[in-house]
Amino acid sequence: MSHPARRGEMGERFAIGLDLGGTELKAVRLSRAGQVERFLARPSGVRETWETPLASLAGCAMGCGCPGVIRPEDGSLVDRTAHLPHWKGTPVRDELARRLALPVAVDNDANLAALAEHRLGAARGARVCVAITLGTGVGCGIVIEGRIFRGAWGGAGELGHVPLGSGHSGCACGVAGCAEAEASAAGLTQSARALGLEPAEAGTVFARAATGHRGAMEAVERFTERLGALVATAVDLLNPDMVVLGGGLARSGDVWIELLRRAVARHALPSHVGALEIELAAFGERAGAVGAGLLAWDRFGG
């Protein structure tokens, strides 16, 4: 059961916001005013490493973001995702509610990152906000006139599966050349290895590029060129006034954000980039968890 809470019963207590990623779980305890009171991060693969810490956050309702298409009616995962491959059909909302004895609301993780940035972060005041999360994969959330745009059945924003690049990079969805494989941490590290860089973890590549290492700089330029083409696709399609970049790769965003702005300007329609702002997420990799906390307040807080 989903332990439905009556609207207004949360009072002055706290909501838990949970971002259930492919490799890491992030959670916040969020006040009604949007203040992050606590933050934790744990590996997401082992249940015992996160159930007890989540309970310790002492929230009275939970919002949860996870990758993939979420069925709005029951909070279940519609299809297998690349990063949670065994979760197809899982009733995420009801399972979390059962384990934690809390009312739970569930949405796509990138949708919730977009909600956080639009309401409290870098995209406040934007009419059309596109939030792109970059990490293990590529996610995209869209907020139009203050509301999350979910599409006909919850599947809007799957930008990570736009065909991109040569088609040589295999995606976990089974299609070669997806943005998820080309413009994510995996795409960056693949470029770095092709240039002879080892170790080629994303953070290492960005750090070496910041010191002027030629090979690392070339890998970052390839990454931002592919990402720029992807962002330009969203810009031409949706005509946003704000694009926000978050996720784990945003931790090194000062290395690549200006390169990305130039790449988007090259690829997108000139009419669409004149007043466009492209910024790093104010909440960084916490954006999805903060948005999940906001979702809990919206659903259960009155």
Automatic annotation (TrEMBL):
Gene3D superfamilies: 3.30.420.40. InterPro entries: ATPase_NBD, ROK, ROK_cs. It holds the Pfam family ROK. Belongs to the ROK (NagC/XylR) family. PANTHER family: BIFUNCTIONAL UDP-N-ACETYLGLUCOSAMINE 2-EPIMERASE_N-ACETYLMANNOSAMINE KINASE, ROK (REPRESSOR, ORF, KINASE) FAMILY. This is ROK family protein. It comes from Eiseniibacteriota bacterium.
